[in-house]
Amino acid sequence: MPKNLDVLISGGSVAGLALAYWLRHHGFNPTVVERAPAPRPGGYKIDIRGAALGVVERMGILDEIRRESTDMLGSSLVDGEGRRLATMDADLFGGREGDDVEIMRGDLARILHGRITEGVEYIFDDSITAITEHADGADVAFERSAPRTFDLVIGADGLHSNVRSLVFGDESRFIRDLGYHISIFTTPNHLGLDRWELMHPAPGKSAGMYSTRQDAQAKAMFIFASGALDHDHRDVARQKKILAETFAGGAWEVSRLLDSMWDAPDFYFDSISQIHMDRWSSGRTALVGDAGYGPSPASGQGTSLALVGAYVLAGELAAAAGDHRTAFARYEEEMRDFVTQNQKLAQTNIKGMVVTSKAQIWVQTRMLRLLPHLPASWSDRVIGRITETIRKAATAITLKDYRS
Ligand SMILES: Cc1cc2nc3c(=O)[nH]c(=O)nc-3n(C[C@H](O)[C@H](O)[C@H](O)COP(=O)(O)OP(=O)(O)OC[C@H]3O[C@@H](n4cnc5c(N)ncnc54)[C@H](O)[C@@H]3O)c2cc1C
């Protein structure tokens, strides 16, 4: 007879929803507490690669995810006047024909949500304030709801995980700031972009804009080298001020994009950071996704780690008949090397995302311009080297078959 059936999951995004699905599948009773008042739409584009494709296939949602993919056609680097300096077709990197899928985060969350048809309780607009563990379970207090007792508590609440702070200690012990900040928000598609991305690089910073379909809306994106910046991750007014000051006087469409920032419904701003922890569980609590091992947006692998982590954690709990000590230890064993390899990707990627000098921008632009004109064997070798590193990390785990 399995034990520890009642599981509270903090966070109802990629990791939390995937975990709820798999726990339900294995006969557990998951409850999801999410701080947002409703499932969050929108968001930015994210990738599903390698082993994570196997997870969504086993969930029966791979075809739907492919249908809803961004279908991006390519991207261009532009100068201060908007002239295209170098253009990269998505097909050049195997983008549209390869196995990997790119989808907007909100679309993925909606599909995950739709796959969970019954047996999962949701508590929106709430957050855990205390977790007190005892021999028979964990007593949980909430900001709004009445206190309840669960068998297990899982933190799937992202980079600034509340559960991690409550159980493992202050965030500063685990967060590794890579020295950059990123901001992204919805903006009018005044350039009429259709599945295209434009990036305007300047020394130490880069501004961009993309639209995934011929949308009235696009996304504005800013990345800059920042060192460690002092701001609270919930102080949006201060974050907007920092962004406006950092990009003040910027060429291309920068001032127009910044003007639209003040009314953006979904302004996102954060450091590009990773989470490094020696262990992802303590007693009856465990962490999954960005909360335990966020690899940062620069790795492009956060979503895949979250999906695989949820699958493995739920599977190990089922395989151990709910014995959390055994399951949490096996979850860690299965995931550790996979996480390490994917976190490593970010350090290399970030250097290409923000170049530091005009000379580097010149070199990068020339190389990208040259690439489509190289003999196929050369360009295949250059592109193959980049894609192979990502492929290796994305497939650095063999999924067990936990399905009952
Ligand atoms: C700008 C940007 C670009 C990115 N690009 C990519 C990419 O190209 N490819 C890729 O794979 N990944 C990318 N990522 C990373 C990816 O979004 C994350 O790795 C992924 O969403 C992790 O999922 P998660 O469920 O662990 O965390 P999150 O998606 O962060 O979800 C955490 C959830 O917990 C909720 N929550 C937070 N605090 C509480 C609380 N106290 N109580 C209850 N709920 C709470 C939040 O509202 C949220 O719903 C990007 C991230 C950003 C920010």
Task: Describe this protein with a few key phrases.
FAD/NAD(P)-binding domain, FAD-bd, 36% helix, 404 residues
Can you summarize this structure?
The chain has 404 residues and is an alpha/beta fold. It contains twelve helices and 18 strands. The protein has a domain at 6-71 and 100-174 and 275-352: FAD/NAD(P)-binding domain, CATH 3.50.50.60.
- By CATH reckoning, the class of the domain at 6-71 and 100-174 and 275-352 would read Alpha Beta
Number of strands: 18
CATH superfamily of the domain at 6-71 and 100-174 and 275-352: FAD/NAD(P)-binding domain
Count of DSSP H/I helices? 12
Spell out the blueprint of helices and strands.
Elements: E1 6-10, H1 14-25, E2 29-34, E3 45-48, H2 51-58, H3 62-67, E4 74-78, E5 84-89, E6 101-104, H4 105-115, E7 121-124, E8 128-134, E9 137-142, E10 148-150, E11 152-155, H5 162-167, E12 175-188, E13 196-202, E14 205-211, E15 217-225, H6 236-246, H7 254-261, E16 268-275, E17 281-282, E18 285-287, H8 290-293, H9 302-319, H10 324-353, H11 358-370, H12 376-394
Bound molecules: flavin-adenine dinucleotide.
Describe it.
With 404 residues, the protein is an alpha/beta fold. It has a domain at 6-71 and 100-174 and 275-352: 3-Layer(bba) Sandwich (FAD/NAD(P)-binding domain), CATH 3.50.50.60. Helix content is 36%, strand content 26%. The protein contains 12 helices and 18 strands. The chain has helices at 14-25, 51-58, 62-67, 105-115, 162-167, 236-246, 254-261, 290-293, 302-319, 324-353, 358-370, 376-394; strands spanning 6-10, 29-34, 45-48, 74-78, 84-89, 101-104, 121-124, 128-134, 137-142, 148-150, 152-155, 175-188, 196-202, 205-211, 217-225, 268-275, 281-282, 285-287. The strands form 4 sheets. A 7-stranded mixed beta sheet has the order 5-4-13-14-15-12-16, sandwiched between helices. Strands 7-2-1-11-18-17 form a 6-stranded mixed beta sheet. A 3-stranded antiparallel beta sheet has the order 8-9-10. A hairpin with a 2-residue loop joins strand 17 (281-282) and strand 18. The protein is globular, with a radius of gyration of 21 Å. It starts with 5 loop residues before the first strand and ends in a 10-residue tail after the last helix. The mean pLDDT is 92. Residues 10-16, 33-36, 40, 44, 46-47, 105, 127, 156-158, 162, 182, 184, 268, 289-291, 294, 297, 300-304, 306 line the site of flavin-adenine dinucleotide.
